[in-house]
Amino acid sequence: MELFDTAWWTALATIIVIDLVLAGDNALVIGIAASRLRPDLRRKAIIFGSIGAIAVRTALTLVVVWLLKIPGLLLLGGALLLPIAYKLAVPADTGDDHSHNAADSFWGAMKTIVIADALMGVDNVLAIGGAAHGRWDLVIIGLLITIPLVVWGSSFVTKLMDRWPLMAAIGASILALTGAGMIVKDPLFDQFVIDHVNVDRVLQVGAALLMFFLGYRAYKRGGGAATAGASTPS
């Protein structure tokens, strides 16, 4: 593959499409976590969360070839992603003392963002690394494209959350779908559990529907409405 030849441009186009699809997961996590903070902390959470997402993805990219050799990595990452999806779908009650809990809430949101980005980043980087065919210039361009996508997408999600708090349930279900997808793609899952495409699809859809149900139930209990009321400026 020569620089700027047809194969190079084809690989770059593939990476851009992958970024457009996969950056949405990162934006959802950052946007939902940031939407539950005070308005004056949201921008900081989006900026620092996006920086953390890109830093994690860059670090993972540097060892992508090594990561490909680790059995069970996707399975573990997907399994750890599911409780994070649950946390986004069913947020804990932080109480009424916002001044006391503001710093804790901010760093709690940052922890959720960074951990989720690290887990999802494995799948994302493997996809981009495979499309780049070992070309570091394409990998770097892909990372640079991701930055504005994640920042803009996160800001967009927080605005949607203000209008429709049920977006938390939808976002969590997408995250659960991603986690289940990572699990069923791992070779260890196929070897020791079951290797059948229809079973894989049922597990992914089942995980997504279950997470949406849990998020919807939390929304109906008043958690989503309370978040919207606290976030809407007076």
Question: What does the model show?
Answer:
Helices cover 84% and strands 0% of the residues. The protein is mainly alpha-helical. The protein has one domain (6-231). Helix 1 runs antiparallel to helix 5 (98-132) and helix 2 packs antiparallel against helix 6 (136-163). The longest helix is centred in the middle third of the chain and has 35 residues, at 98-132. Mean pLDDT is 75; it is low at 94-100 and 226-234.
Mean pLDDT: 75
Range of strand content = under 5%
The overall number of domains is 1
* Beginning-to-end CA distance, first to last residue: 57 Å
CA-atom Rg in angstroms: 18 Å
Low confidence ranges:
94-100, 226-234
Largest sheet: none
Number of helices: 10
- In which range does the helix fraction lie? over 70%
Sequence of secondary-structure elements: HHHHHHHHHH
- Structural class by helix and strand composition: mainly alpha
The total beta strand count reads: 0
Shape: globular
Short summary of the structure?
The protein is mostly helical.
Provide the descriptors you would attach to this structure in a database record.
234 residues, mainly alpha, 10 helices, 0% strand, globular
Indicate the topology.
Layout: H1 6-35, H2 39-62, H3 64-67, H4 73-89, H5 98-132, H6 136-163, H7 167-185, H8 187-192, H9 197-220, H10 223-231
Helix pairs in contact: 1-2, 1-5, 1-6, 1-7, 2-5, 2-6, 4-5, 4-7, 4-9, 7-9
